[in-house]
Amino acid sequence: MPKRKTFYSFHFKNDVMRVQQIRNIGSLEDNKPVSANDWETVKKSGDASIKKWIDDNMDGRTCVVVLIGEETASRPWVKYEIEKAWKDGRGLLGIHIHSLNCPNNGKGSMGASPFTGLKFTDSDGKVKTIPCKNPSVNNAYNDIKDNLEKWIEEAIALRA
């Protein structure tokens, strides 16, 4: 399977520690995390700068993986990233990460799907459902590790 360039969309403040676990799995090409300071700087520079940062970082990516925590669905920049991914023809999928253990907060509660209320249609006008995976509560890390590449390929194929 080819290595895919993946953009991870998530709620930074609440979920960065869980996201780091996924990024460190190593099944995909190296995706450098955004440090807290970089994100804080971008956030303070205004909406236009945030959009540019997202657009620049999403450029060249084949798939957007939305890592869904408790509050991800309510984050406006996550919605922007989802809509941009679909408009640009990228693979798109969600993975619930509440069952991953966070060193600071433990496990979380399952968050709502950020795809709810959004309509996704292909070029023929057919409505598509975005895959949203819910890894095993007892073994979430290994479930993600064992299936991440396959899930990404399925999301990319959905757009083909």
TrEMBL record:
It comes from the Bacteria. Residues 7-100 form the Thoeris protein ThsB TIR-like domain. InterPro entries: ThsB__TIR-like_domain (IPR015032), ThsB_TIR-like_sf (IPR036490). This is Thoeris protein ThsB TIR-like domain-containing protein. It comes from Undibacterium terreum.
